[in-house]
């Protein structure tokens, strides 16, 4: 009988304990809570180089084993297998800006002989990064022990949930300007080729290479580029070209003659 009652009590109490963060000010009007809810229940383990301790942090979730329900939102596992609760999510506070969210867990276990034996607390700084969509990496920035009280552990997490002004789906922040331009040009080329082929194939009944839109242009584009390069980049004298371009005629008798159109016009105006 007692066993059944204990199991029922455990089943009822555990979901309540691991349900949500409890704000110390009883105020959840901050818009950052809506974004943090997207990560609620997720946990991550941290191993810091040079330190013998490992850390586990959760977002409004109990990071202790399921049989230990102490609202532990952040813990430290020491080298001697001791578990220290840094902060509890039933005593939390949240602040936010356009590209950051700061989630604090208070009421951790007290320090021993440092920080005036004050209680620990954890500060998790979520920094905006549009490229990160999973809660898998974090780092401990600092363990502030230089105070007389209110010492804390500062963790940093890069995630798109902190991009409050833009959101996780901000297209222009996920891709560089060059990538966006290339994607736009590629889309235009594919659209041009597809609809051009469709019209020539279905309406004009063309077959073979004639199905390609503007096939003659693409066939001659190499020659056109060579002519353009020759016209713009080469500096050799081409008097016959000047005459041909302006008069529309060719000097058949002497194609290498240096007499230009302007010399011919001068001869015509000389007195007889």
TL;DR of this structure?
With 272 residues, the protein is of the alpha+beta class. It contains seven helices and eight strands. Helix content is 32%, strand content 21%.
Short descriptors:
alpha+beta, 8-stranded mixed sheet, 272 residues, 32% helix, single chain
Q: Any overview of this molecule?
A:
It is built from seven helices and eight strands, in the order ααββββββββααααα. It is elongated. 32% of the residues lie in helices and 21% in strands. The chain has helices spanning 2-17, 32-36, 171-174, 177-202, 215-233, 239-247, 261-268, and strands spanning 43-47, 54-58, 72-77, 83-96, 100-106, 122-128, 139-144, 152-159. It has an eight-stranded mixed β-sheet. It is of the alpha+beta class and 272 residues long.
Mean pLDDT: 77
Radius of gyration: 38 Å
Strand order of the largest sheet: 1-2-3-4-5-6-8-7
Shape assignment = elongated
Largest sheet: 8 strands, mixed
The number of helices is 7
- Strand percentage, roughly? 15-25%
Relative helix content = 25-40%
| Low-confidence region ranges | 5-18, 255-262
Topology:
Elements: H1 2-17, H2 32-36, E1 43-47, E2 54-58, E3 72-77, E4 83-96, E5 100-106, E6 122-128, E7 139-144, E8 152-159, H3 171-174, H4 177-202, H5 215-233, H6 239-247, H7 261-268
Parallel strand pairs: 6-8
Antiparallel strand pairs: 1-2, 2-3, 3-4, 4-5, 5-6, 7-8
């Amino acid at each position: 009988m007692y066993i059944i009652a204990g199991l029922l009590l455990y089943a009822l109490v555990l979901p309540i304990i691991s349900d949500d963060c409890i704000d110390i000010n009883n105020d959840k009007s901050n818009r950052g809570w809506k974004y943090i809810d997207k990560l609620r229940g997720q946990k991550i383990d941290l191993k810091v180089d040079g330190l013998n301790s490992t850390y586990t942090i959760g977002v409004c979730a109990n990071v202790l084993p399921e049989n230990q329900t102490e609202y532990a939102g952040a813990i430290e596992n020491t080298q001697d297998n001791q578990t220290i609760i840094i902060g509890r999510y039933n005593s939390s506070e949240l602040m936010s800006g356009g590209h950051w969210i700061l989630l604090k867990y208070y009421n951790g276990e007290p320090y021993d002989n440092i920080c005036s034996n004050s209680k620990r607390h954890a500060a998790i700084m979520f920094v905006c990064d549009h490229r990160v969509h999973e809660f898998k990496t974090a780092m401990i920035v600092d363990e502030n022990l230089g105070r007389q009280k209110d010492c804390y552990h500062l963790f940093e997490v890069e995630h798109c949930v902190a991009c409050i002004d833009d959101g996780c789906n901000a297209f222009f922040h996920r891709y560089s300007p060059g990538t966006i331009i290339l994607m736009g040009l590629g889309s235009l080329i594919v659209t041009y080729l597809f609809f051009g082929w469709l019209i020539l194939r279905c309406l004009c009944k063309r077959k073979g290479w004639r199905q390609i839109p503007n096939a003659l242009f693409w066939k001659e584009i190499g020659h056109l580029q060579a002519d353009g390069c020759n016209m713009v980049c080469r500096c050799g004298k081409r008097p016959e070209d000047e005459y041909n371009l302006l008069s529309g005629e060719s000097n058949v008798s002497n194609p290498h003659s240096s007499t230009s159109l302007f010399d011919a016009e001068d001869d015509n105006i000389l007195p007889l």
